[in-house]
Sequence to fold (485 residues):
Amino acid sequence: MSIATTRPDDFKAQARAALQDAQLRTSFRGAMDFLVERRAVHFSDLQAFERLRSLGESVRQHALAHLPDLLEQLEERLGKQGVQVHWAQTADEANRICLDIAQRHAAKLIVKGKSMVSEEIELNHEMAQHGIDCVETDMGEFILQLDGERPSHIIMPAIHKTKEDVARIFHEHVDGAPLTDDVAEMIAIGRRALRQKFGEARIGLSGVNFLVAETGSLVLVENEGNGRLCTSIPDVHIAVTGIEKVVEKLEHVVPLYALLTRSATGQAVTTYLNVITGPRRPGEKDGPREMHLILLDNGRTQAYREERYRATLQCIRCGACMNHCPVYTRVGGLSYGTTYPGPIGAIVSPHLQGLASTQHLPTASSLCGACGEVCPVRIPIPDLLMRLREAGRHRTDASATPPTQPLTGQGAARSIVEAWTWRLWRILYASPGLYALFAWLAPRLRWLTPPLQGGWTRRRAPLRPAARSLREQLAGRAGKPRTLD
Fold:
């Protein structure tokens, strides 16, 4: 299955196809078990973990409670430091801003550090249409780009690829690359292919893990060093991120960083923690001469305006919920057809893409609660999944207090048959007489039970009423006559 061709509205078919792929399931199962074990080592003291979670949750909730003010403070601070701040309401606006900057500098090559938001807006595709080549420099992203695919995990994008897959990709797409199964040699092949790109590119692009309003700092967390090269060697640095990434103070980054690294890859710290506070200053020997920050909305204010959905924006993109999810670990990230897969994708994507195309994602959960238990900032993911399921089947309630704002595509999963079924069920159960009549008729008309009952009978026997109702059986035991009342 090609990630590039998957769509969220085809989730069910894509998930069924993934379940038939034994190699995919084996690869994901092993990788997820490894990450879960590494994370458990660093959070072995559950009391300490809960204290850190509480602190991280408080930091994110505080930032969201003051989001408009913090964003204004961030813009003002960055402006004083020589950073040009751009606001983009949609993915198209963000792409137009990037394109304008690239064309003003006559850039034909952009080197990219890992950025999920650039995947979200499909920046590479948009730039390619205007003759600008965007090269992924994160090794996993680079491998997928060579193979024409998109990431299947927000932290380890090529986790679904085997060693043999990577060897084949390099051999087919990198000039002079031998077909080898030696991991160190494959990494060296990738590094050699990327190294020259850093010197050729006029523009470097990155994502952002945290924005600090007080100091005007951009914080980037990475392991490979490619992010540092993208943000320091080219003349122009463009950072693209969502508006929710802001925190108030630099000290607020510390607990979030501790939670992010341990939850994501099971590391106490990552190899690189970059804190960027502006372009190159007089006398400095490296760094970009021009710096831009694009703050993207793209549906985030829709989650923000409704308090019942606002916790969605607390996410620090660690991927722990995905690693522990029994659904994700079996069908993989490509099945979801979205930039953000797994439990977090199921609650984020409806705001970014609307419920019409993502209506199946909130139902792709067993509601076991593992995602909520491991979330380092305590996002109530199971509760949000249930709210989105309800929103998919019901239009907004104007009589609610306070009135709720509809999600884009709200009610897209509404079924007339289902709606009337529940309406009749309500009438039936509200009337003792009707209920008693139904209980008497159901066993006698059980032969009318349909053999096919939707998804239930794909793996199970059809549901049929018992030959005698419980009420009749109890009446018979007591020797009482059977009545309808």
In short: The CA atoms of residues 223 and 322 lie 20 Å apart. The two ends are 58 Å apart (CA to CA). The chain has a mean pLDDT of 91.
